[in-house]
Design a protein that fits this description.
It is a single chain. This protein has two domains: 6-170, no CATH class; 178-383, no CATH class. It has 20 helices and five strands. It has helices at 6-19, 29-37, 54-65, 91-101, 105-110, 137-145, 159-170, 178-185, 189-200, 203-209, 214-218, 221-235, 248-265, 267-290, 302-307, 312-328, 334-341, 344-349, 358-372, 377-383; strands at residues 22-28, 41-42, 73-77, 85-89, 147-153. Strands 1-5-3-4-2 form a five-stranded mixed sheet. The protein is globular, with a radius of gyration of 25 Å. The relative contact order is 0.08.
């Protein structure tokens, strides 16, 4: 079929091409490592922790030495100082190079990077078990002088275009967890608040009440749970969560976007909200530190979640329900809560079957709130919306 509107197609093409502004250059690896050490190339707060295994890092170094093609790195100019760059894609590669080529162990430790010793290479077997410093000078120079292609996004690219670029670069990457991708797409003050204020500053408290393995921490699963808690608790109107339609991923994405839009419009209002959230989270964390099962174990511990075949839903129910109760009442009925969460009805409410159903989300959160407020178990049962009543 012939194309009759080729002019409009070409116009659209030209308009969209103009929106994507970036420069491309090839830079020696030694220079890239030095720029990272000087703080000129930065890793955003939300970026993934360093998760490449020693084997994968070693393979990457081997690929460079063999002259194999290496994917481009994407950086974005800092809006406040264009001389500084923020990594959009390529943090694992850059940190691998730094961990291998730099011998400042104190610096590496400060960046949570371990000194790399090559291992399990199948092409350059003779350099297995060697560090960079132990390589022949010719090989060290070969690595340091090799070029990597870097695409640098301009400061005047809109946030929408940056989001699209991030999504397209990382689309299909098996290593990106939902929160990691979300944090990259919606980066800014709100995401920094989750990672720094609510997760990192309270890391000891979280370890005490909600033990996650290091692997899960590295995948930003704690930050994911914190986002869930904020999104649900801040979206409640009466006994409903009107913006939630049974699709949590869309709900959390929309909430992040709304928070960013709100920050753009009223930074003073955000400062007030931030203080209130910190206070509420501190009270909620303290509640779970002080109130435990008879065994002394946390109400949120993995053993409990596993017993009731619940994961995220168990956390959402107890943590968000407690947040809502604390907002209204400081005298919480812990005994009534434990009676409710050990009931067969609550087990159904937090079960994995249909866990994202709107009625089920509302039931598990509000039933915990009601139990803490001292509402009788029979009344809670009759108020449930789901078919398990």
């Amino acid at each position: 079929m012939p194309i009759t509107n080729s002019s409009s197609i070409l116009n659209e093409f030209e308009e969209q091409r103009k929106l994507v502004k970036y420069s491309v250059g090839d830079f020696p690896i030694g220079w890239i490592v030095e720029q990272y050490k000087l703080g000129k190339i930065k890793i955003p707060t939300y970026q993934r922790k360093f998760r490449w295994s020693k084997e994968r890092q070693s393979k990457f170094i081997e690929s460079i030495l063999l002259g194999l093609p290496i994917p481009s790195i994407f950086l974005a100019k800092d809006a406040k100082d264009s001389r500084n760059k923020e990594i959009v894609d390529g943090s694992q590669r850059i940190r691998t190079l730094v961990g291998f080529m730099d011998d400042d162990l104190e610096f590496l430790s400060s960046k949570n990077i371990r000194k790399l010793k090559l291992t399990k290479l199948d092409r350059l077997k003779s350099i297995n078990s060697l560090t960079y410093e132990q390589l022949p000078d010719d090989l060290k120079n070969e690595l340091s002088d090799s070029f990597l292609r870097i695409n640098v996004l301009d400061t005047d690219i809109s946030s929408e275009i940056k989001i699209q670029i991030f999504e397209r670069i990382n689309n299909g990457s098996v290593e990106l967890e939902p929160m990691e991708k979300r944090a990259g797409i919606y980066s800014g003050l709100f995401i920094d608040f989750i990672y720094l204020e609510l997760a990192q500053k309270n890391s000891d408290k979280w370890d005490n009440i909600y033990k996650l393995s290091d692997g899960k921490k590295d995948k930003a699963l704690l930050e994911e749970l914190i986002l869930r808690a904020i999104a649900y608790s801040e979206s409640v109107i009466g006994q409903d969560i009107p913006n939630y339609n049974g699709k949590p991923s869309i709900f959390f994405d929309n909430f992040c976007q709304e928070m960013n839009d709100g920050l753009d419009n009223n930074i003073t209002q955000w400062e007030t909200k931030k203080r209130n959230l910190i206070q509420l989270f501190n009270k909620t964390l303290t509640f779970f530190e002080n109130n435990r099962w008879e065994s002394g174990k946390s109400l949120l511990l993995k053993e409990v979640r596993t017993k009731y075949k619940a994961t995220n839903s168990w956390f959402e129910a107890l943590f968000v329900g407690t947040m809502l109760a604390i907002k209204e009442n400081t005298n919480l009925n812990v005994g009534n809560l434990i009676t409710w969460i050990t009931s067969s009805e609550f087990r159904k409410v937090v079960s994995s079957d249909g866990a994202n159903d709107k009625n089920k989300v509302i039931d598990r959160i509000f039933s915990v709130k009601k139990s803490l407020m001292g509402i009788t178990i029979d009344t809670i049962k009759t108020s449930l919306l789901g078919e398990y009543r």
